[in-house]
Amino acid sequence: MSNPETAPDGASLSAMTAAPPAKKLDPAYYNWSSTFSIMLGRMTGSRDVDLEEKYFSEMDELKADTICKRCEDNRSYLLQYSPIVKFLKDEVGKLGGDLNDKNILCRMCTNEQSGGFSLDHGILLCANKFRNRGHQEDTMAHEMVHAWDHLKFKVENENLRHQACLEIRASTLSGECRFSREFFTKNQWRITEQLQHCVRRRATLSMMARPGIKDEAHAGEVVNQVWEGCFKDTRPFDEIYK
């Protein structure tokens, strides 16, 4: 991340362990999306909480267990066999962090995100949002890039430029914007600068959910402000993963 507002940081990921939920409904149903929604300012009032509780009360418990088990099995497989996941796990380890099955957690989610990251809690995988193992691999890699960045750089949560840089790097380096995924799953038919177009689109959408962003135009403006340096910075990779 070559944004001059960021700098190497000696932070530790030792705190990145699974914290117990403040309000426990059922282990299979506990939804970290509420944690991340609050962190990103997405929840606007008690009505949202009521809707989430109603959702969980109506969920089929057997289905939730099955979906989360599949996510957990894929997580274990990817941690052991996925080249990009293994590489990022090792790189996070070099910075003093430890990503494992205790802080990479599969949960049922009510919103459209496929995952999330918190330095205090770890990585959230939205088990019911994955199309297949490849989609889960992309999401794990995306959030692991966030983990690496938070350990490597002094990231300010309220600094929109910092947050835009994080999203640019995660979409660029995770593999989620590779041509085959965009072509077959997103119906994106661009041949020239496909990667750049995808990264800009995903980073802008992510920024629109953050407090302080007025609208899509504002989100795109912030992304453009840091685009050049952040898109070209491929650390910890030697080049963009394809």
Protein traits:
242 residues, mainly alpha, three-stranded mixed sheet, 9 helices, 3 strands, globular, disordered N terminus
Would you kindly provide a written description of the structure presented here, covering whatever features stand out?
There is one protein chain. This protein has 242 residues and is mainly alpha-helical. Helix content is 52%, strand content 5%. Strands 1-3-2 form a three-stranded mixed beta sheet. Helix 3 packs across helix 4, helix 3 (61-81) crosses helix 5 (133-152) and helix 6 (160-173) packs across helix 9.
Radius of gyration (Å): 17 Å
* Count of β-strands: 3
SSE sequence, one letter per element: HHHHEEEHHHHH
Largest sheet: 3 strands, mixed
Say what oligomer this is: single chain
Number of helices: 9
Shape: globular
Helix coverage percent: 40-55%
Strand order of the largest sheet: 1-3-2
Mean pLDDT over the full residue set: 78
SS-derived structural category: mainly alpha
Q: How would you summarize what this structure contains?
A:
By secondary structure, the protein is mainly α. Helix content is 52%, strand content 5%.
Chart the SSEs and their pairings.
Layout: H1 33-39, H2 46-58, H3 61-81, H4 83-94, E1 104-107, E2 115-118, E3 122-126, H5 133-152, H6 160-173, H7 179-185, H8 194-208, H9 216-232
Parallel strand pairs: 1-3
Antiparallel strand pairs: 2-3
Helix pairs in contact: 3-4, 3-5, 4-5, 5-6, 6-8, 6-9, 8-9
Keywords: Hydrolase, Membrane, Metal-binding, Metalloprotease, Mitochondrion, Mitochondrion inner membrane, Protease
Family: Belongs to the peptidase M76 family.
Protein name: Mitochondrial inner membrane protease ATP23
